[in-house]
Amino acid sequence: AQSVTQLGSHVSVSEGALVLLRCNYSSSVPPYLFWYVQYPNQGLQLLLKYTSAATLVKGINGFEAEFKKSETSFHLTKPSAHMSDAAEYFCAVSDSNTGNQFYFGTGTSLTVIP
Amino acid sequence: DAGVIQSPRHEVTEMGQEVTLRCKPISGHNSLFWYRQTMMRGLELLIYFNNNVPIDDSGMPEDRFSAKMPNASFSTLKIQPSEPRDSAVYFCASSFNYEQYFGPGTRLTVT
Predict the structure, then answer these.
(1) Whose C-alpha in A16, A20, B84, B92 is 20 to 30 A from the C-alpha of B57?
(2) d(C-alpha A43, C-alpha B21), whole Å
């Protein structure tokens, strides 16, 4: 069965510091992996996706994620945090067996300290 | 495209009343999902449709909840009768080619 684990429900970083949000997945077949961002009182917005092409995926707002099959991970990073990055981040997994159905992690709340 | 459209954006109702949430997916998308988000339970998948057919409704909490998709451009989620514990943000999302796009959500408050 597919599942996603996001380590750390809350992460705080200083403005300008590296952002690292962790995601580990479980899938019996090659996965499709996604990161979404949710700003307060808004819906989820797709940040980036991995669908079996390049393992390093670049998304919007300077975020990127690397697919590591050996570690079953898809961690999200950004070299320098900005105040506007404060939001909730969700990792999700899908695959060819599940069709368009996604399995979401429990989310990580990112706080950026000025 | 205008994205996924949900209405109303906010709904306040009294316990026992019927509530209908509406969703217009992105044109051309063949899958539609209804989610519920609360602080306690996070993001929960309630039901999803492929080509207007319900595929998995195992997340629907109980018989008070029902969802329909009469055509490719419209879906409803109905709660009858509503209860205070149904208070949450309800999201609709549509999907094509393994990407899901979310609507802005409907914030439901049941008093």
Answers:
(1) B84
(2) 15
